[in-house]
Queue: 3 jobs
Job 1
Amino acid sequence: LYGMPQDKLKGRLTALIEMAGLRGHEKQRAGSLSGAWRQRLALACAIVHEPPMLFLDEPTAGVDPLSRREFWEMIYNLAGQGVSVLATTHYMDEAEFCNIIGMMHNARLIALNDPDSLKAEMKGVLFEIECSDPGRADEVLRALPLISEAALHGVLLHVTVSEGRQQKEIVKALAAQGIRVERIEPVLPSLEDVFVSLVESEHHARLRAEIE
């Protein structure tokens, strides 16, 4: 297997079974394993020959949140051992584990940097809003010139403005539409906020170019 000597291969397989938490499942068919366990098995198979670089295409797609975190801990440990890991993911919380992140949109690379730098480069002030009607609030605020970007995060709303003092204007605009603001405060941007900001900026730039 991979041209490895039999004696070395045996010890390697034992170590990988332990790493993937598959002890006790050695005689079980791969097809009978859950999706999370099959992903663990696939990772173990991919590193049998101790490759210096590992390519993973959405390795945790369809896996529950806890298993996703455990899987990424294994990947992080591999990186700590000197393995270069290139992974694709749609989960922004997973991207936080990476040293360098490349953000893609419409098949183009729109950003490339480490997580902290990407967040620091985001322009404007980000507010998190808890209100009585987040869906309608999103529509109301998107129509305001002072709002650069707006995006729903579950029952919360994230909006970006150029200045922090515009907080009162946001509350006033929502109150005028009968929307009660329970909480509004500045927060640090997440990678999802950064991505939304980049995509929105690109969209606005394209619209301006079409008008001109």
Job 2
Amino acid sequence: MSTRQVNPNRIRPIDLIPALSGLIGKIALVSSFAVVWAQVLNITTPDFVFKNVQIELIIGSAVSLIAALLLPNMSPAGTLAPLVVLIPAMAGYGVHPFVLSILVGIVGIISIKTRLFHVLISLSGIISKTSITMTFGISGIMLSLKNLQSFFGDNMAPLFIMIGISLISFLILMRKNITWLIIPISAAVSIVLPLIFGFSIDYAVTTTLPNFNPSYWWYEVWGVGFGFDIRTILVTLPFAFFAILLWAIDTVSVQAMIDANYKEDEAKEEIDLDRSFILAALRNMIGGTFGGAQTAALWRSFLIPLFMVKRPVRYSSILLGILGIIAGFSAVPIKVLSFPPLIWSVLLFGIFLPFINVGIRNIINAKSNVNRISIVIFTTLGVVFTPILTWVGAVVFEKTQKRFLKNKD
């Protein structure tokens, strides 16, 4: 991805769409990381998840705001969502969350400076991109529906109505080529309908000002200390390398969305990957120092709607940073945006369904039935097992296919 400035003008109301989506996505994903870490480490600290979301939101938003003001083509540093499923395995091996944060930052910077990261990305062709896009889309939809069903329990009527209204809206907007409007529509529907059916939003906040003392976080909140010893570092290092591989896979899915939303002759704002991932690496170390549970990557829940509205990254990033800081320090917006129907509806219709839409279009436009079948197979591997299998399998297949066709010619 090269750096190219497009349509440099003032902030517009439409820039709020990616900012709102990114804010909701951040709260959902950091909550997921914090919940899983708390489960595997038996953390019983009151409000652990809320405090973690608050500290991560403030740090991530502040870093993104500063970066947007200084450099126009940098992606905000978000959350590496695929890594959350590996937290139980990492904890079982003795991985320490703080050590992981620092090592991911160090290994990430080294991989970018040595160009290893770009080598990993360049291996991916259309089959790899489509398979990964479909894998993330299907896995995300399954996760969203599972969490929505868990929230509504036996009262399924509002869930079906909510999904029905949002789905019909998405299809209408897709025909009119304004699918980015699904984010505010699904957000409104997912708040109003549950309230009508008797559900309520918990506004209660026990504390508003976050604590930025690393010792407080790692000794009192997490209760695991800083964890820096040779054994822990050696155990954690392979998972840090694995996170960088997930960075590359995550980037492939973002590239697929860019290709799908912009025509070949259409001017586009492309992300400076080197600076963006160095920012993610630094943000990861900062967040880890102050007790954050997440692992950083590109802010995907921000970027996908951004490419849909086709606006410069800088303006939405500025709004995202401002909104995130306000939400983090005031705390109450975190409670509102943590409302499960809101979180999972916006992610379902604003992020995961567009992934599926792009994947299906690529499958239809594939050059051969062999390519279509291979995409389905690799997608299935990713959904059932891990996206790593999807990416590795698709890359090997593409290289083998390319070599075979070359020898045949």
Job 3
Amino acid sequence: MLSVTVIEEAYNRIKGYLHRTPILYSTFLNHLLGSNIFFKAEALQKVGSFKVRGALNTLLALNEQGDLPKQVVAFSSGNHAQAVAWAAKILDIESTIYMSPNSSLLKRQATKSYGANVMVASSRIEAEERAKEYTDKNAYFIHPSNNDYIIAGAGTACFEALQDIPTNIDAIFAPCGGGGLLSGTYLAVQKLAPGVNVYGAEPIEANDASKSLKLGNIIKFQDEPSTIADGARTLAVSDKTFEYLKNLSGIYEITEPEIIYWTCWLMHLLKVMCEPTSALSMAAAVHWLKTQKPGKNLLVILSGGNIDHYTFNNLWKQNYLDILPNLDIDQIINKDAL
């Protein structure tokens, strides 16, 4: 694993280009749940997600070393695609992105707007394979999680949050797709708040990380998981991130109704766009709070806010705002969904 010093190095490298995203909170939600929840709002970051932190850190680090490539290649369902394309544009280099067929049109268009050459593959597996093959054309391959610079960059979100929150934190929650955000978060905690528990969250329909940790080795799905949380439709965690995930305090598996419920409520309470993958963190936090005494201080990392109209409309087919948040909300909405 990396030294904890890489987090601060990454922060100093990228801070002049990116937003220091705010910490948000809801007095109403804190009252309902009996604890203090601080949200790191990465939806307000450049390109609308934390992913840009790792992509930019990668290219700036290569540039420092005199190894900046003439072009980069990546594969992604959306947020990593936009991040790599944006970072490449900042460094004035070409980018080619292979996207899965289930990636939203909105994310494809956004990626193109940053100057990337976007190719839509027939499957997520093919997108990854074609991206790797493209490296033979002298393009630098930026993996969405299996890259030390990506992990360090992702960790700067938690690094900022721990400095900006005016109290000690009891636990931190972040979503798990490929594991880059969680890995970087773990490193940031070792740097600024060693001993604080870090928890991950993934859809129960895309629970490759949980299964891998239980088995002790990485398992890989053959097909893209079916979940509304598109940022967590990864086939597997990466070799590098798996080593960090082993050190987490746990990973919660979240149902689709819970994801939808908390996506709607977070948008309502915080008045920011929240993509379903972000809601995984909040759902996990509530599961944890059920086992704790009141008055805890939590950091919930909201990974992004890129959501298309189709997903947005599907979220609101049921009016979950009629059901107030409480510590047993998972049982209530999962029962209603049966």
